[in-house]
Amino acid sequence: MTENFRLNKGGLINRNKKISFKFNGKKYFGYEGDTLASALIANGVHLIGRSFKYHRPRGFFGAGVDEPYAIVQMNRNHEVDPNVRATEQELFEGLEAKSVNCWPNVDFDIGAINNFLNKFFPAGFYYKTFMWPKSFWYKVYEPIIRKAAGFGAASIKHDKERYEHKYEYCDLLIAGSGPSGLASAYAAAQNGAKVILAEDKSRFGGSLLTSDVTIGNQTGKEWAEKIISELKSMPNVIVKNRSQVFGYYDHNMLVMSERVSDHLPKTDKYIPKQRLWYIRAKEVVISSGSIERPLVFGNNDTPGVMLSSAAKEYLKIYGVLVGKKPIVFTNNDSGYETAIEFKKNGIDPIVLDTRQDTNSEITKEAKELKINIKFSYVVVTAKGYKKVSSADIAKISEDKKNLTSIENIKCDCICVSGFWTPTIHLASQSGNKTKFNQEIDAFVPSQSKQKETTLGSANGVFTLEETLKTSFEKGSELSKKITNKDNTVTIPTVTEKKSSNHDKFWCVPLPEGKDYKRFLDFQNDVAVSDIHLALREGYRSIEHVKRYTTLGMATDQGKTSNLNGLQLVSDVENKLVPQVGHTTFRPPYTPVSIGAIVGREVGKHSKPTRKSPMHYWHEKNNAVFVDAGVWLRPRYYKQGNENLFEASKREAKNVRKNVGVCDVTTLGKIDIKGPDSAEFLNRVYTNAWLKLPVGKARYGVMLREDGIVMDDGTTTRISENHYHMTTTTAQAANVLSHLEYYLQLVWPELNVNVVSSTEQWAGAAIAGPRSRDVLQKLFPDLDVSNQGLPFMGYMEGNLFGVNAKIFRISFSGELAYEVNVESDNGNFMWEKIMEIGKEFNIQPYGTEALSTLRIEMGHVAGSELDGRTIPYDNSLEGLVSKKKDFIGKRSLSKKAYIESDRQKVVGVVPLDKKTSIPEGSYIVKDAKAKLPNPKLGHVSASCWSVEYDNPFSLAIIKDGKNMIGQKLFALSPLKNKTIPVEIVSSHYVDPKGERVRS
Amino acid sequence: MLYIKCPHCGLRSQNEFSYGGDATIKRPELNKEISDQDWDNFVYLRKSPRGKHLELWQHISGCRQWIKVERDTLTHEIFRTFKANEGI
Ligand SMILES: [Zn+2]
Predict the structure, then answer these.
(1) Distant-in-sequence, close-in-space partners of A428: CB < 8 Å, separation ≥ 6
(2) What residues in A contact B58, CB-CB < 8 Å?
(3) Which helix (H) or strand (E) holds A954?
(4) Residues of B in contact with A748 (CB under 8 A)
């Protein structure tokens, strides 16, 4: 039976709704409104996990976002969620969580042996220990570290949860709903500004929920509730809880992650698990508050040692005692608030104050309540392994160097307060350089770089009165600039206790003869001794110390450890903290799920899918599709039990023998108009364009300025000043941008307009010896004879009532035509072609057959025009004009481009006429040469030649022209193949190009 | 994410634009003799300044116009934007 630490009353939980949950397989109960942390503490569970390096037992240290220890692995909605902070995870019925960093279990953890071997895990242990012997890294060290390290295990399955992105624009984004956030939001909203108020926790109000203050005639909590409900009712305000603004990016773009469903047992249909908000704000108010700083003493990582503010939060919000024999160890007034809260609930705390007797209001109150206070006292070390059971305490001398009257007292928790650290992460991310405030021993924002204002304790202001005053004023001022409205808000009166100065002392010296580990960074197990060692070894820059010791590098990013680390470095180095400086804060402030970052763009949604107007015909006719850029194209049409190889062979053969039809809608199309179009094309393409007559098409190649082939395609002169350009499917968008670049920036004097018309036209390529017969029947009124419509000719026609453009162009090397109709008529055209082509044995063919046809014809395509080749390499030198200038021409005279043994495209046939050559294979002279075997080039494309019924490949090899006829080898180390080959002409079929002109 | 003021469309997020490099580079005139050195400088050599930089962006998911943007490469501050045909 576990002991009950829940008070009979109090807190903000719903005691009418009991909730059952499981931790490490054991069943517990909590209440609605609990976090996993508060519910476990209520059940007396303080052992949550094991630490990262030494596997020391870990409990709870905080109550929120700053928690360094209580990281658990969740099972929710049949999904695994690693790296969840138990202090932030709200309880729901059936919640299941387990410890991380321990094996086989949290009570008996094998890794804990590291704790006793800690001499081998000093600062920089990653760098030192595993350097020798080198061969041990992969086999021994790495696998062990992998098994032992990390905060949980990510699922290797696809995450079925839904994540969403949202874009929002506002006048004021306010990060944090404590007093400064509420006041500035309220004032801005009164001026009609569009406000987004974001709160990380489920409850609004921040420190007002737990502090003993009054605003007007209400308690802090009542006032917060009133302001929130007013804000929620205003149409110009978005109020979001469970929402962490984690990143401040350029130009006032902030990103917020909203945990929409994480607090529910499962995600509802059509509701996301998490939502990522991209918010562009005119002004940003950072009201992110402050985090209590730990005090450092021996074994201060023992479960049961926690922040005093966290202990107070568990009491006041969850009605939970973190212990029944508490020690409050403080260097400032804040610890007393926790002590008084214990006392009010019938628990007798002992307060150890590092200061001499102070007469602040709150110490007086504590004395009146008869709380046992020991001034000038410290905790020397916590005792107990899995939970604090006692503490060695001692009186400390005025110079804070000597400990006297050390005694052991029983306790079950130690609540520490080392004063407050403003949360300046967002301000720092925005580019704000920050400054050190001596009075509070911490950094605060300084000059704004972007439109950002930090208010309240995040700005180092620790009185409520001043916080509210400045926040109301700032909220009014910032919104007035935007809305030009000035509705004054009356600032309410505040009662709060006046605090006295805190003690700058924070690190308890070791008693003589003791070497207790005193931890600075609780998540990464960085102790005082590690920093000492790093400094002794010569590390000076705080950025180096951080990386060498891993101080502040874990998932909590040093929220509780950074400042103490800096203090220590400054003490040892005898420098001031601002001279040491702090490490850079980078987003995200808290860990963000990869799923949330990805959003809805997963799987098929990672890019748009384009389908041609004939897509559903292809689907109905057993097409197997392939991704071609953003398009889906039929790869082959399956008949019976055919595989890819058999089907594509059949389709390609039918094109060579009869006639085939291929959907070429996906080709890029650009409409070009204007009186200077011919001149423009003449500059863009490598060949001559000025004399192309109306009604004729021409093949063209365009280069980049560096001489590399960018794209190829045919362009047709539709009328005097109107051209129709085609590009490859893949390069369509780049070519359009390229043309726009030259027209807008380089030659703005040319009167030419370009626009993409890819989606406007559906295209069908009809190819094969019978293609003219099909065309004639499609357009019975037209003269489509070799004279009427010669090779590279163009005409317009009427396809059973539909306007069509007919181009006599060929990619397959056969007599062929391309017919374009407006997209809406695409399917009509396709069905007509199939109907009419039936008597000529027409068959549709896919991209695989298309490739086969172009490869054996030696037509270069994307695999040869691969961004590394010049026209010569692709045997396109005939298309390069010697007379005129064009984009990239000057580069072609570069020395490397004109060398006589320059690479060239050739054909490759295996000697056995059977073995297909894998694409990417190397071509070498000697298959058995010593490695590295000098390679002549690579195989760019392979097919099964349907003309000769044997494998055929294209390759780009050095001095290719002179290699024709030679017997070489194709090597594919990946496929472990060595294939004797013969180099032949790349034009394997119809080398004179007679068929296309027939 | 940058917030770029397209001179044609107004303020738009960076993800509507694509980057086009140094806007001060002038393409050598066509049909004009040019030394290897000068041509290579035009094709390959770009400064990578710390501070003010006049650069090209194309409003690719908007008006498709190429524009000039004067931006600080260190702070990402954008000082001014121009149409393609506007000088600085
Ligand atoms: Zn625009």
Answers:
(1) A434, A445, A584, A585
(2) 737, 740-741
(3) strand A950-957
(4) 84-85
Residues lower than pLDDT 70 in chain A: 1-3, 101-151
User: How distant is the Cα of A684 from the closest Cα of chain B, in angstroms?
Assistant: 12
Distance CA A181, CA A228 (A): 11
The pLDDT value given to residue A116: 56
**How much is the pLDDT for A154?**
77
* Res A524: pLDDT: 81
Give SS3 for A776.
helix
The percent of residues above 70 in pLDDT, for chain A, comes to 95
**Which residues of chain B lie closer than 8 angstroms to A250, CB-CB?**
1-3, 76
Q: Let me know if residue B33 belongs to a domain.
A: no
- Give me the mean pLDDT over the B11-38 stretch: 96
How far is C-alpha A101 from the geometric centre of its chain's CA atoms?
A: 25
Say what the pLDDT of residue A560 is.
87
Bridge partner list, A701:
A712
Query: Residue type for A791, please?
Result: F
Q: How far is B51 from chain A (nearest CA, A)?
A: 15
User: In this structure, what are the phi and psi dihedrals at residue A398, rounded to the nearest 5 degrees?
Assistant: -60, -35
Query: What per-residue confidence (pLDDT) applies to A635?
Result: 98
Nearest CB among A280, A744, A890 relative to B84 is that of: A744
Angle between helices A771-778 and A826-837 (to 10 degrees): 120
Residue B79, in any domain of the structure? yes
Of B1, B34, B44, the CB nearest to A249: B1
**B69 CA: distance to closest CA in chain A (Å):** 14
Phi, psi angles (nearest 5°) of residue A222 = -60, -40
Strands (E), A222-302: 237-240, 243-249, 253-258, 274-286, 290-292
Q: Is residue B30 a part of any domain in this protein?
A: no
- Do A969 and A979 touch, CB atoms closer than 8 A? yes
Residue of A nearest to B68 (CA): A745
- Euclidean distance between CA atoms B88 and B84, whole angstroms: 10
**pLDDT for A984:** 97
Instruction: Classify the C-alpha dihedral A746-A748-A750-A751 as positive or negative.
Output: positive
- Site of tokens 């059977």: A914
Distance CA A743, CA A674 (A): 12
How many structural domains does chain B have? 1
From ligand 1's centre to the CA of A339, what distance in Å?
A: 62
Partners of A885 on chain B (C-beta within 8 Å) are 30-31
CATH number at residue B63: 3.30.2270.10
Residues of A in contact with B13 (CB under 8 A): 253, 280
Nearest of A555, A550, A522, A558 to residue A428 by alpha carbon = A558
**Nearest C-alpha neighbor of A427 from the set A262, A264, A286:** A286
Question: What domains can be seen in chain A, in order of their start residue?
Answer: 14-129 (3.10.20.440), 163-290+422-495 (3.50.50.60), 294-418 (3.50.50.60), 513-573 (1.10.10.1100), 898-998 (2.40.30.110)
What does the pLDDT look like over A713-771, one tens digit per residue? Answer: 999 999 999 999 999 999 999 999 999 999 999 999 999 999 999 999 999 999 999 99
- From the list A163, A168, A167, the residue with the least C-alpha distance to A237 is A168
Token pair for A327: 């020690």
Instruction: Tally C-beta pairs within 8 A across A and B.
Output: 52
Q: Are A326 and A411 in contact (CB under 8 A)?
A: yes
Q: Can you give the pLDDT at residue A990?
A: 93
CB contact under 8 A, A706 and B66: no
Whole-Å CA distances, A44 to A20, A24, A87, A346, A790: 15, 14, 15, 18, 91
Range of the domain at B78: 3-24+42-83
Q: Percentages helix, strand, coil for chain B, rounded to the nearest 5? A: 10, 40, 50
> What ipTM was assigned to the predicted interfaces of this complex?
0.98
